[in-house]
């Protein structure tokens, strides 16, 4: 009899808990003493009592301090207490790690000299570092939740903020000190939230202005002596037959190099003017077909019959732009094609629809070049083939001039080339820069590359 009681106790405690064991003992007691009904009632009461006791222990533990060890439990309740404690401990450790990471990020941002400002999806201030207080005048006591445009009221920043195109940074004067220049860069993250970073680039801006002024002043000062040299060399060339033969070759080389220096100075002056002067709001209505015909004629004179030049017109609209600047940009592209493509190549000047706007293209079927050079082609004096460029007499500033002219006209330069497949230089103008031709219908757009 004792053996069976011990086995029932072990089975009930390990598998079902004390409640189930109470019901089992109650059933046995009912069979022995008062019948089956009273035994089941007693066992059920004991079972409910034990569960309520464990529920109270769980409530008290969660109410006081769940970080402490859980109360002792039996059966399923003991396993539940252990699992809850393990889960709560893991969550506590995870939260602590996240707090440490967040604190390190905040400490890192505080150590930065650049301003860092977090904006919510509505553009309101959420958090910023100490540098933003000094650079932008933000006050942590009462500025939180205010729109960023309340503090940066420059129309250029408002347009930049609302446009949503943050690929390029924005340079504007400081809202606190007009003699300081700040560079703003916005980054989207999360649910349309923004991270604003501001950097003081006053020193760099000042150095850039000094460089521009230096180049402009030196170029201007060089014009007079070069003009004098060119004049005397031309005079001597007219009497070259009276000079010794070994001097004649030297005078010819001096005249060629003086002409090259004059072209370089003129390009430097033009580039400096494009960088320094503000874009002119006055827009000429340019008849692009006539413009391209004139440039093609000049390119034919430069080519002297070595290339085939043609003009293709696929767009009926006219261009609203500065005629002189656009002629300079397209001429640079056409003359580069003449200089850098082999004899017998075909060069095409094209005016065509492009997406919502239109484009002027200069395309050739020459040698082309590796696309790795494309990102740097518009840098000053960058050359794909230095030896060939020196032989052609180019200044290395043509594409830099094209880039700045297009920037002043809200346009962009696209370059496509492959070795052996020629090159295509496309000047893309947006729709607001187009004016429809009188009495002409729009042509269907062709947006294939």
Automatic annotation (TrEMBL):
EC number assigned by the record: 2.7.13.3
Task: Report the PANTHER family cross-referenced here.
Answer: PHOSPHATE REGULON SENSOR PROTEIN PHOR (PTHR45453)
Listed under GO cellular component are: plasma membrane
Query: What is the name of the protein in this document?
Result: Phosphate regulon sensor protein PhoR
Query: Which sequence ranges are marked TM in the entry?
Result: 32-50
- Reply yes or no: does the keyword NADP apply: no
Q: Which Gene3D superfamilies match?
A: 1.10.287.130, Histidine kinase-like ATPase, C-terminal domain, PAS domain
Which superkingdom does the taxonomy of this entry point to? Answer: Bacteria
Its EC top class is transferase
**Catalytic reaction annotation:** ATP + protein L-histidine = ADP + protein N-phospho-L-histidine
MF GO annotations:
ATP binding; phosphoprotein phosphatase activity; phosphorelay sensor kinase activity
Matches recorded under SMART domains: HATPase_c, HisKA, PAS
């Amino acid at each position: 009899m004792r053996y069976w009681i011990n086995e029932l106790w072990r089975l009930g405690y390990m598998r079902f808990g004390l409640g189930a064991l109470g019901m089992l003992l109650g059933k046995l007691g009912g069979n022995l003493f008062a019948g089956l009904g009273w035994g089941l009632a007693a066992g059920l009461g004991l079972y409910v009592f034990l569960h309520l006791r464990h529920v109270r222990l769980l409530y008290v533990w969660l109410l006081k301090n769940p970080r402490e060890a859980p109360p002792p439990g039996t059966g399923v309740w003991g396993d539940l207490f252990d699992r809850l404690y393990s889960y709560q401990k893991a969550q506590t450790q995870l939260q602590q790690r996240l707090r440490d990471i967040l604190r390190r990020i905040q400490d890192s941002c505080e150590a930065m000299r650049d301003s860092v400002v977090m904006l919510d999806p509505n553009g309101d201030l959420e958090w910023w570092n100490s540098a933003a207080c000094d650079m932008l005048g933000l006050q942590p006591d009462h500025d939180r939740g205010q729109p960023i445009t309340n503090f940066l009221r420059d129309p250029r920043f408002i347009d930049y903020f609302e446009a949503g195109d943050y690929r390029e940074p924005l340079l504007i004067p400081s809202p606190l000190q007009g003699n300081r220049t700040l560079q703003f860069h916005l980054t989207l993250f999360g649910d349309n939230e923004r991270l604003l970073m501001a950097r003081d680039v006053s020193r760099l801006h000042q150095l850039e202005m000094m460089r521009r002024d230096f180049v402009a002043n030196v170029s201007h000062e060089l014009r007079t002596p070069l003009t004098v040299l060119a004049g005397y060399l031309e005079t001597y060339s007219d009497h070259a037959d009276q000079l010794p033969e070994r001097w004649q070759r030297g005078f010819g080389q001096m005249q060629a190099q003086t002409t090259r220096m004059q072209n370089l100075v003129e390009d430097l002056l033009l580039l400096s003017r494009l960088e320094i002067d503000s874009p002119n709001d006055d827009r000429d209505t340019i008849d692009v077909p006539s413009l391209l015909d004139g440039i093609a004629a000049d390119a034919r004179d430069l080519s002297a019959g070595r290339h085939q030049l043609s003009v293709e017109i696929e767009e009926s609209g006219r261009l609203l732009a500065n005629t002189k600047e656009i002629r300079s940009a397209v001429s640079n592209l056409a003359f580069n094609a003449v200089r850098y493509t082999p004899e017998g190549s075909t060069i095409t000047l094209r005016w065509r629809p492009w997406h919502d706007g239109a484009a002027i293209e200069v395309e050739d079927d020459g040698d082309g070049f590796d696309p790795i050079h494309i990102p740097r082609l518009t840098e000053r004096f960058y050359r794909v083939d230095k030896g060939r460029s020196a032989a052609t007499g180019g200044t290395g500033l043509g594409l830099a001039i094209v880039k700045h002219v297009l920037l002043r006209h809200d346009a962009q330069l696209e370059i496509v080339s492959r070795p052996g497949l020629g090159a295509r230089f496309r000047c893309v103008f947006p729709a607001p820069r187009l004016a429809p031709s009188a009495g002409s219908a729009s042509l269907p757009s062709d947006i294939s590359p």
